[in-house]
Structure formats: C-alpha cells, structure tokens
C-alpha cells in the first residue's frame, strides 16, 4: 500500500449468472463477498452506514485501525466482483423479502450493535451512554457533548476502547470499573497495559449498584466491593458482593460497555428463521446455512460479540456453502 503496488485481482474468467445479496459490509459480509467472487459469483453488499467495514470502522478507534488502510483493503475486495450499496438499511430502505425474491441466496452479517443495559436504577439519566454508541459517534467525528469525569463499566475490548477514546476526547478523569480482577478481564492484555500507561484508573472487584444524580443529571455511581467466590459456568470465579461495602465514585458521565446483542428486527416475524435466546441466528456449522434454505449467516450475528478473525473465517465458510447451494439448485433445475 505504501509503495502504491496493488495485489493482483484473481477471479475466474467467467462469472455465473446468479447473484447473492449480502446484508452488512463488516468483516463477515466482506469476506463472504470476496470468497463468492473467487468462486465466480457476483454479490451486492447492502450496508446501513455511510461507509463499509462494520465495527472495524465504527467501533475500533482510528488510532488502532486507520480508515485509509481499511478502505485500501475493502476497495481491493470489491474489485473482485462485489457491488457495495451504502446508506441502505434492510428492513427500512429495502425489505428482507425483496432480497429473498430477487437474489439466488441471502447472507446475513449484521453484527451485534445493540449495547446491553446495566439494569440498575438511574441508568436513564443524562450522562449515561452505551459503549458502542459512544465509539460510533467518536469514529464518525461527531462532537461528544460530554465533559468532566467518566466511568466506564466493563472489562472487554469495547471497554478499553471506550476508555482510551474518552481519554483522547479530553475527559478530566477516566475510571474503569470491573467486577472481577485484572486477570479475568477479557480485553487484550496490551490494551489494558496501554490504557493504564495513558493514565486511566482501574477499580477492580467493584460492581455498579445505582446511578445517582441531581434531578435527571448524573453526579456519581454507587458501587459495591466484591470478592471472588467459586467458579461459575464460564470457569471464572464468580464475583460475590461484600455486604456493607457501598461507596460512591463521583462522575458526570458513565459509559456502559458490558456487551452487545444483534438487532435483527429487519427479519419478518413469519420468516421461520430459527433465532436463539441470544438473538443470534442458528446455523449449520459446516455451511452456515440457517434452517431456511438459501439464507446464510455468520459473524457476530451468529456467534454473538466475538473477534474479527472468526467473522472473516465463518464468512468464508458461508461463501463456500452458498456456492454449493446454488450449484445444487442449478443441478435440480437441469
Ligand atoms: C469497540 C470494539 C472493539 C473491538 N476490538 C476488536 C479487536 O481488537 N480485535 C478483534 O478481533 N475484534 C475486535 N472487535 C470485534 C470485531 O470488530 C467484530 O467481531 C467484527 O467486526 C464482527 O464482524 P461482523 O461482520 O460480524 O459485524 P460488524 O463488524 O458489526 O458489521 C456488521 C455490518 O452490518 C451493518 N448492518 C447492520 N444492520 C443492517 C441492516 N439492517 N441493513 C444493512 N446493513 C446492516 C452494520 O452497519 C455493519 O456495517 C471489536 C468490536 C468492538 C465493538
């Protein structure tokens, strides 16, 4: 890229007539488009946001993954035979049924964009926002209308990004509150080290209890100290509250970064698609086909919030599954 040398675009001489609709231009959708093109299938990638790349563009901050590098790679992927239609939300601008009718197969790769709520009193107060929304606004260059001190709740990569972006946005103090210890934090260790190095304060073994405020405006967070008990289903030791250990961290803002869920409202109720209790699609783990023939899904909307390489790998497996599905249909029709 820095030497202005583009890798070659290697695709079959002839493409098949069938086209595939891809919902979502994140790592899963774009990987699916790329491997479909390698198998000789054109696709149209429908993307709700103004630009492609999903959480690579609207979640992970620019200082970790520069947009210029991303766009260079995406343009190369698209050059293989995928058409990108941004600002097109399925379920609003085009219906899901239309895609089912007009395309040989549909791939769903819409990620997990709905931030989970803390489910504590006061979290609807002014000053409280969810991590993915905060990062999206920051990545879109929107003015962050928050100032003073901020508390980030969570111990994953989204929490670390929210903390480090908050620091860059110029908050007076940035606190990370996590209910287990540093050892149990799911975030990459180098992200935790970098956040600490930048001056972000960590409070381990602390859980939020209530957002407190003056009228509707947050002024602090009531917390409880925790200790580690027996291992839970995840194998990690369960945090147990220490009775009478309440204390308050004063802050004007709170960012909840405790997880995300997919938003799949665009799928019609009568679609018959099997949906798990985590709001993800159930798929065959070889082909990534859902229980409805011709509809495939991979990425965070299938696994729940995960890592990018799994979205890419499963997007590839889905592309191979789609190619096999279309070939079988073609044989049936012959
Ligand atoms: C803040 C943050 C930091 C992360 N850091 C890391 C990291 O360091 N390393 C790592 O490996 N992973 C990281 N991840 C996880 C990684 O980004 C995701 O696992 C990956 O992006 C999932 O890819 P995806 O294609 O499934 O979904 P997404 O990347 O979420 O893309 C889904 C796309 O679908 C679009 N879409 C949604 N609904 C519709 C609709 N109705 N119509 C049309 N388009 C729609 C969205 O706009 C989006 O572009 C991070 C995630 C976040 C949020």
The CATH architecture assignment of the largest domain turns out to be 3-Layer(bba) Sandwich
| Strand line-up in the sheet with most strands | 3-2-1-4-16
What overall form do the CA principal axes indicate?
Answer: elongated
Percentage of residues in DSSP E strands: 15-25%
How many domains make up the 3D coordinates? Answer: 2
Task: Give the biggest beta sheet.
Answer: 5 strands, parallel
Task: Tell me the CATH topology of the largest domain.
Answer: FAD/NAD(P)-binding domain
Can you identify the CATH class of the largest domain? Answer: Alpha Beta
Structural class label: alpha/beta
Total beta-strand segments: 16
N- to C-terminal distance: 45 Å
Query: What are the low-pLDDT stretches, counting only 5+ consecutive residues below 50?
Result: none
CATH homologous superfamily name of the largest domain? FAD/NAD(P)-binding domain
Bound molecules: flavin-adenine dinucleotide
Q: Write down the overall mean pLDDT.
A: 95
Q: In DSSP terms, counting alpha (H) and pi (I) runs of 4 or more, how many helices? A: 9
What is Rg?
A: 22 Å
SSE string, helices as H and strands as E: EHEHHEHEEEHEHEHEEEEEEEEHH
How much helicity do the residues have? 25-40%
